[in-house]
Amino acid sequence: VEHLGAGRHDAQVDDLVIVAAVHDIGKNIVGVVLRCNNYEVIDLGVMTPCAKVLDTARHEKADMIGLSGLITPSLDEMCHVAAELQREGFTLPLLIGGATTSRVHTAVKIAPNYDGPVVHVQDASRAVGVAAALLSAQQRTAFVKKTAGDYAALREAHERKGEGAQRLTFAEARANRLKIDWARFAPVRPRRLGAIVFDDYDLRELVTRIDWKPFFQAWELSGAYPAILEDPVVGEAARALHKDALSMLERMIAEKWTRPRAVVGFFPANSDGDDIVLFADEARAKRRATVYTLRQQRKPSPGRPNLALADYIAPIESGRADWLGAFVVTAGAGIEAKALEFERANDDYSSILVKALGDRLAEAFAERMHERVRKEFWGYAPEERLSNVDLIGEHYRGIRPAPGYPACPDHTEKRTLFQLLDAERAAGVSLTESCAMTPASSVSGWYFAHPDADYFGVARIERDQVEDYARRKAMPLEEVERWLAPNLNYTPLKRAANG
């Protein structure tokens, strides 16, 4: 978990001290916004143990604690921190933010663990208002009461929604899988099997593939690019930001701030139920690894299947040879080094800007690699001719879903992907214990080539599927439940701390 949290408020000086772990762009902006509004920010770093957060809160005589989560395991840790605050008698407000969090999750999963005020902060622009309301003698009581009431209503609505949704058993969902006529479809063999490594990719080529809309969204400027540059409300700010970004990109290229690296690979594969078996070679006699997938369980509308990614790979019994691709790309460790250099020079703006550009370059790299995979390395769409707008709009054959995201929400599947590609050696990207990627400006995922392959969300799943999934992965059920917590449509059984 990234932590935004513990502070001291002086009655004479507006000097709230916030202890923060700044990892993604939004949290960097939160820190800057708070500092600009006379709040001091102390950074505890990423993945800080709960005990350190609480100890710092006591030592600094904190006014509030904040937690920010970038990936789904952080959600479970937030619940733990809230419970520890309750156990140790804290009454400080708890702020919740980050890419994986939501108002509903905060209300349903986190707030019930703690009697103190719990508030989800949707974006950086609201952080100061929330902090001010929680510290104001005039506003606090009404603000806390209204937030608690809103969250109680969200919990009730969540319970009603769960009761009303029609669900399938896992067996029924499996029976309603996507049925592809494999007798009429012959998968294309990749032109190159195994891993392909790119050690120092051309940055200038990646710049042409940047999707600028998320860049502006990171700075909380909403609008389609390039129209946002002429927007009557945010256009002036967007133009200035865009100019600074282009200038920094030119410096980045000229001065070689970073070294983009990538590894992609293609492996003989067939599906076996809801799993994808990867073979050691094209003889397909020896299994090399297994990719485990999850299946939708909500009752679909008539004629629609309950999807799992395994549906897009030819089953073993079909007799068809098929393949699965994998990739890891990074904008390079130079991004983080340069950001740190700016931070040490007290240039927060440039630090945030280079991180935001690093994220965009990593996504652009993923887009460019996928294009080359379709046209060159796998070669199933050699005649493809698409503009950058078409690429951003995903108007092409095939998908590249990432472990930890809606179609494959289990982050631990990254471990298999990284082992297959030897990603740390080949691309300089490693995984933390919580399966976050380092450097942060990195992207990983799978390549599926079937024409019917499309993105979808697994969404809520039931205990019968989770138990089956844990058995297939030979993983303790409680560990699987922890990783899949946001997708569970049931409350896991309480287990003793010692197991």
Describe the structure.
The protein is α+β, with helices and mostly antiparallel strands and 499 residues long. The protein has 17 helices and 14 strands. The relative contact order is 0.11.
Quick structural summary:
The protein is α+β, with helices and mostly antiparallel strands and 499 residues long. It contains 17 helices and 14 strands.
Helix content: 25-40%
Oligomeric state: single chain
Backbone CA Rg: 24 Å
Overall 3D geometry? globular
Major pleated sheet: 6 strands, antiparallel
Beta content? 5-15%
Derived from helix and strand composition plus strand pairing, the structural class reads: alpha+beta
- For the termini, the CA-CA separation is 23 Å
* Number of strand segments: 14
Count of helices? 17
Low-confidence segments: 1-23
Query: Overall pLDDT, averaged?
Result: 89
Protein topology:
Elements: E1 2-3, E2 16-20, H1 25-36, E3 39-43, H2 50-59, E4 65-68, H3 73-87, E5 94-97, H4 103-110, E6 118-120, H5 127-135, H6 140-164, H7 170-175, E7 194-198, H8 203-207, H9 212-218, H10 235-254, E8 261-272, E9 275-279, E10 287-292, E11 322-330, H11 334-344, H12 348-377, H13 388-392, H14 413-421, H15 423-427, E12 430-431, E13 437-438, E14 442-447, H16 463-473, H17 477-483
Parallel strand pairs: 2-3, 4-5, 5-6
Antiparallel strand pairs: 1-4, 7-8, 8-9, 8-11, 9-10, 11-14, 12-13
Helix pairs in contact: 1-12, 4-6, 9-12, 11-12
Which key phrases capture this entry?
disordered N terminus; six-stranded antiparallel β-sheet; 499 residues; alpha+beta; 17 helices
